[in-house]
Amino acid sequence: MFLSILCEVHEIIPYEKEIPKNKIYLLPVRGSDTNWYKNILKDPTVTLNVDGRSLQAKAEPITESDRVQRVMELFAEKYGGMSEIKRWYSKLDVAAEISHIL
Q: What is the C-alpha separation between 86 and 38, in angstroms, rounded?
């Protein structure tokens, strides 16, 4: 399933989804320097486009290192290990969680 996020500045970013316990976890490629992450700090409302449907949701920034580490582990399990995550993600200081569809 394709998931994209429409942020405050109408920037669309494709992401694979991770849904343990009905939550979507996002790992920004440039960490806290990523534009969409900065946007959710200003306005946590995002639009999820899933299979042609648009859904409004709230994104929660994750800054606690143990929670960020868990998201990294979820991505590593799916995408070939932690070495692959560290290869493609330049800054691993934050993540985001979407668990509340409006």
A: 21
